[in-house]
Amino acid sequence: MTNKERMAIPVQEMPAQDPLVRAKNMQEVALGYTAEQAQLESNRCLQCKTAPCISGCPVSIDIPRFLGLAAEGKFADALGVIREASLLPAICGRVCPQESQCQAPCTLGKSLKNPLLAVAIGRVERYVADNCSAELPLPTIKPETGKSVAVIGSGPASIAAAADLRQNGHAVTIFEAFHKPGGVLVYGIPEFRLPKAIVDREIDTLRQIGVKIETNFLVGRTRKLKDLLTQDNYDAIFVGTGAGLPKFMKIEGENLVGVFSANEYLTRCNLMKAYDDGRASTPIYRSKKVAVLGGGNVAMDAARSALRLGAEEVSIVYRRSLEEMPARQEEVHHAQEEGIHFRTLTNAQKILGDDQGRVKAVETLTYTLGEKDASGRRSPVAVEGSEAILEVDTVIVAIGNDSNPLLRQTTPELSVDKRGNFLVDENGLTSMPRVWAGGDIVLGAATVILAMGQGRKAAASIHRFLAG
């Protein structure tokens, strides 16, 4: 097939549930490619020699090679190529922002002068992972080294680090504070975007290759970080505890009944299945009118979850315009299709309560956009005298997270920045000997694949240290 023929193949659209149907259920929205679609989309790859997509991938998957195999219908072989660099293709194919990572520099998208026409790498990745995982053997484990590593947290960075360390023959134990492993993959991302059975399958792979997982184990309380080295005799530690401390706006009324952090709301809904009335492990606040403050992926997840939990009206309140919104375009589009209201250039300045201390409304201000700030986005400027009342009974604050202070409070040897994120060198080594870190605890809230990239880099450094 010539490049001209490849460029003439249209982007294969992702099949999805009908918006009016899916807004009432928790089943996955995107239904996945057919084999024919996956093969056609793979054939759009120009197989260019420069392969800029690889440098756009935080774990450096050989994307042209896996797409070339998928284009021939060799889907299991294609998955094998991905697995050389990533243990979580079914997850990354669903939740990673490929449009700003591997697909952003795609030669096809640039040739067609439209980034939306880049090869849909993530969709093909999802297809081969969903349909061929059972065909591949477990990763090969090298001879036992007699060395042991403690991995703190069980999110994407920790999963990647644990897998690489175990494959190099080291004994690995993951310590997870919650009752179920998976980190943000199980507590933060809704079922309709990432079915938890997929996360369970990837965690089970870790167990099958010999990684031990201890749940309900809060390092810093159950055991201090230093004790794992000095008393339990671990040779090294990797910390991948994420950024789980929610930020609030520090406005009047945030202590009212009916105000939630997105973290708490999503954890109740996802990890504890509050949407399942018959089997839920926790109650959920029943809402009619919901305001979600923020414009990132977490805000989209919270808003769309509230709709599925029975809210009659859900609004995203965001102080910039739709163009500046940091959420993935796909998530914004899905939310709009489902009937979420987008109240842009608007922000909450006060939450109002009734005589019982429950939320009854949000007082908002209108904004205009001024000069660009450090993030490259235009700064929001409040319009004087533009106060308005938005009647709601629930407010979900989704403006980001900081790192949990527990480890730094109980481990003075660790150096942190002004936001509380761990300071590490280029290999993930912290200021504390034999302790590495990666993922959101270092980056702040980032993406699954970026966290995995940090986990893999740290694991390579730990392996060199242990082998040294």
Can you put this structure into words, describing what you see?
- With 468 residues, this protein is of the alpha/beta class.
- The chain folds into 3 domains: 3-135, Alpha-helical ferredoxin (Fumarate Reductase Iron-sulfur Protein, Chain B, domain 2); 148-244 and 402-467, FAD/NAD(P)-binding domain; 248-399, 3-Layer(bba) Sandwich (FAD/NAD(P)-binding domain).
- It has 19 helices and 16 strands.
- α7 packs antiparallel against α9.
- The mean pLDDT is 94.
Widest sheet: strand order?
Answer: 3-2-1-4-16
Q: How large, in whole angstroms, is the Cα Rg?
A: 23 Å
* The top level CATH class name of the largest domain: Alpha Beta
**How many distinct domains?**
3
CATH architecture assignment of the largest domain: 3-Layer(bba) Sandwich
What is shown here, in short?
By secondary structure, this protein is of the alpha/beta class.
Helix/strand layout:
Layout: H1 3-8, H2 19-22, H3 35-43, H4 52-56, H5 63-71, H6 75-83, H7 89-95, H8 107-111, H9 121-132, E1 148-152, H10 156-167, E2 171-175, H11 184-187, H12 196-208, E3 212-214, H13 225-230, E4 236-239, E5 245-246, E6 259-261, H14 262-270, E7 289-293, H15 297-308, E8 313-318, H16 329-337, E9 341-344, E10 346-353, E11 359-372, E12 378-382, E13 388-391, E14 394-397, E15 401-402, H17 406-410, E16 435-437, H18 440-443, H19 448-467
Helix pairs in contact: 3-5, 3-9, 5-6, 6-9, 7-9, 10-19, 14-15
